[in-house]
Amino acid sequence: MDVPLLITTTLESPADAEKLSTLLLQKRLIACAQISGPISSSYWWQGKIVCTDEYLLTMKSDELRYKELEQVIRDSHPYEVPEIIATVITHLSEGYQQWLEEELKR
After folding, report:
1. H or E element: which one contains 17?
2. Contact 24, 72 (CB under 8 A)
3. Domains of the chain listed by start with CATH number
4. What pTM was computed for the model?
5. What does the pLDDT look like over 4-56, one tens digit per residue?
6. DSSP category for residue 93
7. Smallest Cα–Cα separation from 53: which of 63, 64, 42?
8. For 61-106, what is each residue's pLDDT tens digit?
9. Residue 6 · residue 87 · CB < 8 Å
């Protein structure tokens, strides 16, 4: 298997998160996704501190698909500058890793 990744992004509504996760699943760029929230986010934007509720979209994929996955997120995300963070998964149960590999191969 290529290097497994955990990718996260945030969106302003559960509907936006569901739409993006469905698109990425249909394109087989991710094997699964979870939507959490609302979460409270605070950040600098255009010279001001902004506090808002967002929804966290967590996805599992691999490094082989990352560039295309990132491009689809950029093209489809409603934010001007979306958060896209990929973290290498260093440990994975054998059964889950096999499932992940199989789903990403299809």
Report:
1. helix 14-26
2. yes
3. 4-105 (3.30.70.120)
4. 0.94
5. 999 999 999 999 999 999 999 999 999 999 999 999 999 999 999 999 999 99
6. -
7. 42
8. 999 999 999 999 999 999 999 999 999 999 999 999 999 999 998 7
9. yes
